[in-house]
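Subject: design request, 390 residues
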């Protein structure tokens, strides 16, 4: 057993968000951060080096130096999870990976139980609703009823909303661990699901008992606008999000879509109208940040996931529709997803094959739920043909 009094955090996924946001906050808050990753190169670099920099990519550049971290590959993380000094476990690996990570996490938590280890909280920081609950379900499938009972008493699985744009830019730094981020950040965690106090408190972690509001506001605004700028940007041959947003045609649709979803969000969550309008404007400014050089292909990645019924595009569209609001701009953005023809993105390949085999009308119905002959279906298909002709 590792005997070290300093509180430790285990973070799965030492990528952009791992190093550039969650791991950085944990380290700054007094935790020794143990990154666990399947990429041996990153693991080796994290163990070789004492520091890395989080560079703020804004007009007023700044940087934070991150220290006090180490890394393990997934085989060695089981012992870490049993360490009583570990108080928090976080992930930022991408939603499809959670199922793969679950057996290891289950073994680690079993080892913790056997070692008489105390409570801790698990928080999956992924861009999809309720991913910590999803992770918990996967973990349960690898445990006995007695283990699950112990888990229910000692291990909190708290959903969260995580918002910071961390692009995959290559910085000209000597240290490959350095990462560029925007200044803005927001991490809201469902405090009702915690099983123990988060101690020491994590700077920048907002504990809330209204997580649904945070998640929908972020997913249906930031991620919605981002996705639309990326898909339209791709169609109109822009390379980065800021470039796409400087195209008046695109920025008009993005702004329009955020207001369509925004009206519904304000009604549902009883947000102040003015606050929400300011939130939208702030997001549009974030997209326009030229220093992020955020690749449209990164933001558009995995289009099938992004067409999920509760995700960033159809989520606000259905919400707006439910309040009887128009969805012309959202439909325009949704149409562009069906034109994302990216050979190295498996989901894009699948979607393109469907369009080829079944035609756009049926594919739109299958992936949006909008029935052929209906108003929404027509809007998406018309916009598709309009965009295709450009
Ligand atoms: N980059 C961003 O601006 C934001 C990303 N997110 C979310 O954070 C998550 C991660 O995104 P990024 O950091 O951009 O991706 P990334 O690709 O930069 O990092 C993911 C990391 O997970 C590692 N990984 C893969 N399988 C693993 C496993 N089984 N065990 C441990 N590590 C594993 C990869 O090697 C990689 O280092 C996604 O769900 C994304 O939607 C959320 C907010 C912002
Ligand atoms: O990470 P995802 O879900 O593929 O989508 C990319 C989106 O996530 C972010 O990386 C962070 O919220 C945004 O930059 C973008 O909206």
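Subject: RE: design request

Done. Sequence follows.
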């Amino acid at each position: 057993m590792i005997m070290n009094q300093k509180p430790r955090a285990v973070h799965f996924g030492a990528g952009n968000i791992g190093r550039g946001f969650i791991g950085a906050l944990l380290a700054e808050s007094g935790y020794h951060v143990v990154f666990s990753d399947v990429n041996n190169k990153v693991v080796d670099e994290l163990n070789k080096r004492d520091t890395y920099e989080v560079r703020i990519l804004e007009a007023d550049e700044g940087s934070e130096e991150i220290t006090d971290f180490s890394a393990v590959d997934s085989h060695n993380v089981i012992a870490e999870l049993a360490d009583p000094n570990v108080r928090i476990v976080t992930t930022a690996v991408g939603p499809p990976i959670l199922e793969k990570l679950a057996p290891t996490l289950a073994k680690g938590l079993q080892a913790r139980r056997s070692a008489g280890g105390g409570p801790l909280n698990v928080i999956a920081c992924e861009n999809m609703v309720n991913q910590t609950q999803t992770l918990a379900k996967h973990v349960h499938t690898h445990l006995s009823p007695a283990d699950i009972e112990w888990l229910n008493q000692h291990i909190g699985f708290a959903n969260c909303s995580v918002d910071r744009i961390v692009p995959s830019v290559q910085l000209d730094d000597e240290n490959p661990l350095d990462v560029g981020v925007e200044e803005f950040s927001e991490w809201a965690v469902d405090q009702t699901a915690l099983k123990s106090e988060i101690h020491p408190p994590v700077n920048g972690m907002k504990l809330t008992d209204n997580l649904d509001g945070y998640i929908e506001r972020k997913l249906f605004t930031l991620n919605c606008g981002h996705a639309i700028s990326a898909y339209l940007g791709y169609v109109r041959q822009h390379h980065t999000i800021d470039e796409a947003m400087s195209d008046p045609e695109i920025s008009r649709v993005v702004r329009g879509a955020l207001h369509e979803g925004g009206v519904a969000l304000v009604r549902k969550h009883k947000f102040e109208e003015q606050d929400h309008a300011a939130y939208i404007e702030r997001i549009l400014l974030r997209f326009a940040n030229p220093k992020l050089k955020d690749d449209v292909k990164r933001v558009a990645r995995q289009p099938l996931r992004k067409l999920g019924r509760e995700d960033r595009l159809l989520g606000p569209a259905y919400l707006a529709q439910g309040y009887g609001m128009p969805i012309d701009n959202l439909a325009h953005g949704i149409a562009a997803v069906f034109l994302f023809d990216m050979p190295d993105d498996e989901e894009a390949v699948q979607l393109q094959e469907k369009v080829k085999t079944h035609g756009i009308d049926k594919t739109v119905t299958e992936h949006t739920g909008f029935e052929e002959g209906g108003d929404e279906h027509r809007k998406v298909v018309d916009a598709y043909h309009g965009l295709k002709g450009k």
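The CA atoms of residues 245 and 336 lie 15 Å apart.
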